[in-house]
Write a structure and sequence with these properties.
With about 350 residues, the chain is α/β, with parallel strands linked by helices. It is about 30% helix and about 20% strand. Strand 9 and strand 10 form a beta hairpin. The protein binds threonylcarbamoyladenylate and magnesium ion. The site of threonylcarbamoyladenylate has 31 residues, from strand 5, strand 6 and strand 10.
Length: about 350
């Protein structure tokens, strides 16, 4: 398959390119597009054939449901039961934006592949002019997982999408770099409690601020795949899979004493070098000068956690580009957007955590 590429400016409304891409979606094709979080791989969420093509292109397990993207709040009524008041308050506060809400799905309105057999669907309205214009022009709900091969870091640039999916998808709208850099926060309101199923672009503190009277339970409080007691199924099925991982082995080092953490990282790098590995360090601008490795991925500034989120996936991908076989990564503070960053780093490390 040839992947058609359209280049558009984030500020432009509906240039001819978007009309063409929308028409491909309506015909059952797969089209990657930018959102404010990461690039998504879109398909008409009503068409089983189109949605099957998304799963095939990504190599995604069929038990992992897709998020449905809409351009207008009125589209939500067609897809789900009316949201409870607490959820409505979240939508008022964060839509369009990096928040996905899981709601009971109406029967017969979406391909059953989208929800992977669940009785709920995750819905989100992205805050990106190109995404909104494309979804509106397509005139259908657009199922869109992140546009990476399953297990790889999510794409924040069109070039990442082409690396992973070039030749496997119908088209890509290149709208420049995604803004937030990591995926939406996935939440479900149940039994008077807001559960964060996947931490992301909207922080726990931001959610709590909008719902001061509702307990907001974070993924770290037991819903994250790593901390889940077996055999309970994670509430967001995708969280149980290895994810965001570079090809090399990655060790994530965390601890109270920054100097001790840095020393341990360098020791891990030196030992790996001795074994004949090609080494990489994942660190931040403030600390980059402390390390010696074959490749350094300097992922934003500790003093500006949003910059860490923005650069995270390109930094993880850079290890593969540099042929790195062993990575030592420095943890960042597990607060605010850092909670989502640490969630992705823990997954990228596949459970190789060193706490010192
Ligand atoms: O920012 C984002 O959310 C991006 C952009 C493209 O919108 N999309 C994205 O999709 O990250 P994906 O498929 O890579 O991740 C969707 C996550 C998975 O962990 C999935 O299991 C969970 O959302 N999810 C989807 N529907 C769900 C449902 N009905 N119940 C629980 N979890 C659900
Ligand atoms: Mg994904």
């Amino acid at each position: 398959m040839t992947t058609k590429a359209w280049k558009v400016k984030a500020e432009e409304a509906v240039p001819a390119a978007l009309a063409e891409a929308a028409s491909l979606l309506r015909k059952g094709g797969t089209v990657a597009f930018p959102t404010e979080t990461v690039y998504g791989l879109g398909a008409d969420a009503r068409s089983t054939e189109a949605v099957a093509a998304v799963f095939a292109a990504k190599g995604r397990p069929s038990d992992n449901p897709l998020i449905v993207h809409i351009a207008d709040r009125s589209q939500l009524e067609e897809l789900t039961a009316p949201p409870e008041e607490a959820v409505s308050r979240l939508l008022d506060a964060f839509w369009p934006g990096p928040l996905t809400v899981v709601l009971p799905v109406k029967s017969g309105v979406l391909s059953p592949l989208v929800t992977a057999g669940l009785s709920t669907v995750g819905v989100r309205m992205p805050d990106h002019p190109v995404a909104l214009a494309l979804i509106a022009a397509a005139g259908c709900p657009v199922a869109a997982p992140s546009a990476n091969r399953s297990g790889r870091p999510s794409p924040t640039r069109a070039s990442h999408v082409l690396e992973d999916l070039g030749g496997r998808i119908g088209g890509i709208v290149d709208g420049g770099e995604a803004g937030v850099g990591l995926e939406s926060t996935v939440v479900e309101y149940a039994g008077g409690v807001l559960h964060i199923l996947r931490p992301g672009g909207v922080t726990q503190a931001q959610l709590q601020e909008v719902l001061p009277d509702v307990p907001v339970v974070g993924a770290s409080a037991g819903l994250d795949a790593e901390s889940l007691p077996e055999p309970e199924t994670p509430r967001a099925p995708g969280m149980k899979y290895a994810h965001y991982a570079p090809k090399g082995t990655m060790v994530l080092v965390q601890g109270e004493d920054p100097a001790a953490v840095r020393e341990r990282i360098q020791r891990e790098l030196d030992a790996a070098k001795q074994r004949g590995e090609r080494t990489g360090v994942f660190t931040y601008e403030e600390h980059a000068r402390h390390f010696e490795a074959d490749h350094a991925a300097v992922c934003g500034r500790l003093g500006d956690p949003d910059s860490i989120a923005r650069k995270l996936y390109a930094a993880l991908r850079s290890f593969d580009e540099a042929g790195v076989t062993f990575i030592a990564a420095e943890a960042c503070p597990d607060e605010g957007i850092g909670q989502a960053v640490m969630n992705r780093l823990r997954k990228a490390a596949g459970g190789h955590l060193l706490t010192i």
